[in-house]
Each structure stands twice: as C-alpha cells, then as structure tokens.
Amino acid sequence: MYRRDFIENISKATLAGALPTNELVFEGRETFPFKGQNTLWSEIGEYFPMDGYTNLRSLWTGISPNFVIEKYKSNIEKLFSNKPTDLRYKGQTDFDTQLKATREIVASYFGAESDEIAFVRNTTEGLMNVIFGLDFKRGDEIIISNQEYSLVKGSLEQLKAQKGIVVKQVKLPLEPTSAHDLVEPFKNALTEKTKAIFCCHVYLSGLVFPVKELKKSVGEDIFVIVDGALAIGTLDLNFTELGCDFYAGSFHKAMGLPRGMGFLFMKKIHIESTWPLFGHYNIFRRKPGYLLDTIKKFEHYGQFPDYHFVLIADLIEFHEKIGKAEIENRLKFLKNYWTNKVKDHDSVKFITPLSDAFSSSLVTFQIKGKTPKEVETKLEEERILVASTMIDALEAVEPSRYMANVVFLNVNIFNSTQQLDYLAERLLTLT
Questions:
Q1: Which of 148, 183, 247, 278 is 20 to 30 A from 375 in CA distance terms?
Q2: What distance in Å separates the CA atoms of residue 169 and residue 189, rounded to the nearest whole number?
Q3: Residue spans of beta strands (DSSP E) within 125-181
Q4: How much helix, strand and coil, in percent to the nearest 5, is found in the chain?
Q5: CATH number where 281 lies
Q6: How many domains, in total, are found in the chain?
Q7: Within a domain: residue 2?
Q8: Nearest residue to 233 (alpha-carbon basis) of 312, 145, 339
Q9: What are the b/e assignments for 102-132, b being 16+ CB within 10 Å?
Q10: Residue 168 class from Cβ within 10 Å (0-12 exposed, 13-18 middle, 19+ buried)?
Q11: What is the sign, positive or negative, of the torsion defined by CA atoms of 230, 236, 237, 243?
Q12: Can you tell me the mean pLDDT for 90-106?
C-alpha cells in the first residue's frame, strides 16, 4: 500500500504546501551522486524545516521532513475526531492495517522478516526486553565494553544484584587500526560461562564497531546484543548480514521521527524463549505457550500509539528513494569534508577515529582551552547546533563526574558543504 501510494501522497502534500515543487528529484535515478556533487543533495534540505539553523546534532534529536510533520498532524486530527466514521469509533482499524504494512516495510528495509520486528518506544526499551527477558542464571557471564550506554550498564548491574550474573568489562582502543583490534578484547574475555556480549554499533565516541566480525568470531552459542541507536539512518544496515541475535534502534535520531518510536529486531529462534518486559494476561489465560512465539508480545506496554508508528513507512520510502548505501557514502563524504579542514590544527583533538572503516556521520572532539559546553554555546550564537556530552572512557575536562568532556557533532542528509565551510571557519576562530 505504501509503496504504491508514496509518490501520489507526496504530490498531494506538495499541493498543500508541505513540500517544495521538486518532489520527484529522485525519480528515475538508479544511483545518487555524492562525492563532490552538491546540487541534488542540497535540494534534500528543502524538505526539512531548518528555521535558519545548521543542525549538526540530529543524532541527539532529529528533524522530521515537512511531509512527515503534515502526516503526523493529520493523524492527530483523525485520532481526536468525533465523527463516527473516524478512528475513535472505528477501533483504529485503519491504523492497524497501516501498521501491518509498516512492519513489512521496516523488515524489508533492514534485511529481516516481518515477524522478527517489534515496535517499542526507544532503543533502551528494546534492549531491556532482552536483558530482563533472557533466562540468565547465577554465574552466567555478560561481556560489555568501557564505552557502553550508562542505562545498559545500570540495568546489567541490577540484573547482577537480582540473579547473580557476572558482568565483565573490556577496554576498547580509541584508535583502532583493524576490526581485529576491536573484536579481540571481547574474544580474550570469553570463558565457558560467557552467555552474551553487548556492544553498540556506533558508540557515543563516534566509533563504528564491526558487529559482523564479532558475531563470526564468537559463534552461535553466544548472544550478540546490539545497541543501534546511533546507527539507524547513518549506516547501510542488513540484520541478516550482520548475523547478530538482537538489535534495537530508534527512529527519532538520524531519521528524524517524533520521540517514542523504536524497534527491536530478534532472530526468530530466540522469540519463544525470551520473556517480554511487560507481561500480558493473554499469554497465560489460554493454552500453554499462547503468544510466546510471536514478536508482538514485546509490544504489550499499555495503549499502543499506532498513529505514531505508521509514520515510519513514509520516511523509509523517502530514504529508499535516495538509497541506504548512498546515504552512508554521503555522510562519510561530509564527515571527511569538514574534518579535513580542521584536523591539522594543533588545538583540535578528535576522539573519533576518522577512517571511514571506523566512523560515519558522528564525530566527537575537543578544542584546547575550551570546554565542550563553551564550544556548543559559541557555535549556537552563530546558529550552528552541536551538542556536548560525557564519554565515560575519557577523563573529563572538568572535575565533575557528569561534566561534558567532548563536543558531539554529526552530519545528516539535509546538511550541505556550504554549511560545513562555515562550521570549519567558526571552529578555527575558537582555537
């Protein structure tokens, strides 16, 4: 339904003023030029409400294209309509139908099957279903790195207190020269008691981790659980090719949908044996095993916001018209474009390894003599939006445990080389 109607819907939105008139810019193009060719890419920015700012922190909270914003408004109006023909009285039948199509589109986009995709509210909720749903026993070992997300670390400490598991932490190099450098710390920590490994696909430092190589290295007997929050919309992802057992992500970051929209990929062989984070009475009131073998059991967390999740299909169609590989290549091109302009300056220190093998959209860095918050504030005065954050694996610039120690900056498909020229110019004035 969505694939057939997408161009028609876009055209209607254009007539309503939601889109620029060049809505068919991608039509009929098998590939999308990126290296050094800024004309067509710059047109993509017209689909987004930039409001005069250069947004370089969309992995913090993204920006929705105008046509998605209009669709969201329309869905909200239908949801609150008092007409008996509208959704409040139809039992949300329309949304249910659209959600089924959306699940199929998401699965196809990420190289999975539709019964391997659950819609959750964010990456964290997806990961919590795995952490507290797998049948870990006392003494079982889970390996993480020193760069994992704090909520994952905290949840594993809680599981340690509850069940007596062992959490082992390995140190990842900040300047890897090969995938082996990143996989080997996990391999060296394996024992016969190891049950699972947690890793981020893209760490907060900007490091892109070799998930595929890790899974090949540890084999099928050890769960590989991936936090993909910062990878969705920046890497050309195929879960079947990655081989990981679980992968959770969010659509509100690089892909720019409203908050509260995430997913959990789970290999079918794990679904029945994994308990959902929120119990559902239907699992137990009917025959034994009812609902235990379906991915939808992870979606029972109260009222399900169907109207929210059906937006995903429209956005994926937009990304597919550009191409996943083309998006990843474009983001790496933009990353290299701006970093090459400042990397030789002594006052700029990059935390992210800048090689395309180990980084993509996100770069973290420091400027000598300036706190990350000062850099963020100064750039915002120039209408350039970045973020400052804390990476546990580094020593903080300030003595406080919670003080930001890096500048967090990522490029996206709506950014242009002209914007990055101005960024580089302003950064060098801070050194």
A1: 148
A2: 9
A3: 141-145, 166-170
A4: 40, 15, 45
A5: 3.40.640.10
A6: 1
A7: no
A8: 312
A9: bbbbbbebbebbebbbbbbbbbbbbbbbbbb
A10: middle
A11: negative
A12: 77
Which of 107, 359, 106, 336 has its CA nearest to residue 231?
A: 359
Task: Return the structure tokens found at 367.
Answer: 């400027």
**Is the pLDDT score of 13 beyond 90?**
no
Max distance between CA atoms of the chain, in angstroms, equals 69
The residues near 312 (Cβ < 8 Å, ≥ 6 apart) are 102, 105, 106, 251, 257, 261
Both tokens of residue 167?
């959490």
What the block records as the tokens of 294 is 């379906």
Residues listed for the chain: 431
133-147, 197-211, 292-306, 374-388: the lowest-pLDDT one = 292-306
pTM of the model: 0.87
Cβ neighbours of residue 385 closer than 8 Å, sequence gap 6 or more: 53, 54, 55, 56, 57, 379
Residue 286 burial (10 A CB sphere; 0-12, 13-18, 19+): exposed
In angstroms, what CA-CA distances link 333 with 327, 338, 412, 413? 10, 9, 11, 11
**In-domain check, residue 238:** yes
Structural Rg of the chain based on CA atoms: 22
Strands (DSSP E) contained in 5-104 are 54-55
Element housing 94 (H / E): helix 93-109
What residue type is assigned to position 62 of the chain? Answer: G
Would residue 134 count as lying in a domain? yes
- Domain interval for residue 130: 100-316
Q: Write b or e for each residue in 47-79: b if 16 or more Cβ atoms lie within 10 A of its Cβ, otherwise e.
A: bbeeeeebbbbbbbebbbbbbbbbbbeebeebb
CA 229, CA 210: separation in Å to the nearest integer?
Answer: 15
pLDDT tens-place string over residues 67-88: 888 888 887 877 777 666 555 4
As a whole number, mean pLDDT of residues 8-16 equals 40
